[in-house]
Predict the 3D structure of the following.
Amino acid sequence: MPENGKNFAGLNVASFESRRGKEMAMIIEKFGGVPHVSPSMREVPLDDNQPAIDFANRVITGQIDIVIFMTGVGFNHLLAAIDRKVDKQRFLDALSDITTICRGPKPVAAMREVKLTPTIKVPEPNTWREILQTIDTEIHIANQTLVVQEYGVTNASLVAGLEARGAHVETLHVYDWDLPEDIGPLAANIQKMIDGKIDVTMFTSANQLNHVLKLAQRQGQMEAFSAALRGTVICSVGPTMSERLRDLGYPVDVEPEHPKMGPLVAAAAERSQDILVRKRQIRAVLQETTKAALNKEAPWYNSAFLKACRREPTDFTPVWLMRQAGRYMKEYREVRAKTTFLELCANPQLCSEVMCTAVEKLGVDAAIIFSDLLPILQPMGLDLEFAKGEGPVIHNPIREAADVDRVLELESTDSLHYVMETVKQTRADLPADMPLIGFAGAPFTLASYAIEGGGSRDYVNTKTLMFRDPGAWRELMERFVRAISRYLNAQIAAGAQAVQLFDSWAGALGPDDYRRYVLPYVKDIVAQIAPGVPVINFATGNPALLPMLAESGAAVVGVDWRIRLDVAWETVGHNIAVQGNLDPVSLLADQMELRRRAKDVLDQAAGRPGHIFNLGHGVMQQTPVDNARALVDMVHEMSQRK
């Protein structure tokens, strides 16, 4: 047993290694686990691979400038493919005269077996991003003929990145993947997982996952297997594998600092017991909340708002307003005059009172709990204060990678019991057929508050940590994923019918950075929300992020006013509901202009099922209450189906 105390303590661990199956089983046993290792794939060399022969001849004749070897197996299959067709030594000599780039240690080792040393070695975690970053610092590839030895499917992101740098890119396919000749052990592992006999699942390559799913699909077990997989501790060897899991909607529970088999098992052994306990607790809550969410007899189930979330036809377009209970209302100001903001948020009776007052006064079709994005930070170890005239202030912000360790796990929502009481109280005080929306800050926005210590214009501290230390960023975001998922599911269990993620600061990011540093974690949250409960994913400030908001798996995408609604809906796809998107300042116009603007939004929605009318952000403090009420009436009147 390892001396450092990392121990599976008898958990059943599934792995899908092929060539290194015995080694994986030994490591799992070393860390106290019960291994269930089944081969998932085999490499199949291409017969009569003429493109490989042509490539070798072009290397010999000086027509290729740069080669990227993605795998050691691929390098060896290349040599086998050209054997007896090309002078092997001439090929190797010519290869030594051009620039060769190896993605990780395995192609390096394969080249060394034939006495070759690669020109450039790509560092961990050996993803396509590190390839491009290494190229940027080491060589110029513009106008060079560059060949990528593929494995699996073509990496479109890598090819696009190389072409953007001016290279003439070609791909070289040298082998295919297929299921093992004997699929019995793999089928048995799939069945064990469905039967609930597996606690931990490990993946070290995307092709393993592809083949496991392929066999599950072939056997008619896809739905049962996917549900069972989510119930295990899902362990990924590194970023590329994690990206594939998240693309398919599976959360990543463990990813080691170094993308290798040994560190993967060690990290899983250390963390799996705690994760499994947490997952089982959440599953018990989800089973109960899912029953409630899918109760078609509930008074709120066929409300216009929830029907729109499900993209079902409605008699009129439902409307609610972000920040519909706020400082623009006299009743709210009277309550706030007697208490601080944090004290108000911690008082369920008052929170329900201000929201129910707003709902009754405006005539909206959904209520949202009265709370704030930031109280979740307090039980996570951050010293939060709402300073008069300054807004929220974090007195102990995260500035260095080491500070991430100060961020506590939100092991339970007990410390946020007042939010759950607010949900229960508001649910009890609202009309029975009025849906209630819970909410939380999205992980990027919460992380930005925690790092900046308050508001920011350029988010320099947040981006500096994100760019300089991806490992620390990942750890911070994963803690927020676990906290937010638990928090939202607790709100659902307390009586919310839908939940919204507010990413108020995501507009500070460009699409590439959002996709890399934020989207995977939003996907993880959405995947962990009780099935059947609509999730609204709202980010403001950059319409270019909309396609990725849709990729999150959310039922509804919130749209701000910086893009036309029809363009936004076309962008995200009509298979997703949309919410929005009147400019909040429109509520300061006269009612004739307000009506014209509201009609414009409705016209862009064109009566298509799945539109929830809202502002592109929250109601402004200067807004006349009469205009807010008039807007709701206008939307109901102009959208009435005949």
Q: What stands out?
A: Residues 261-293 form the longest helix (33 residues).
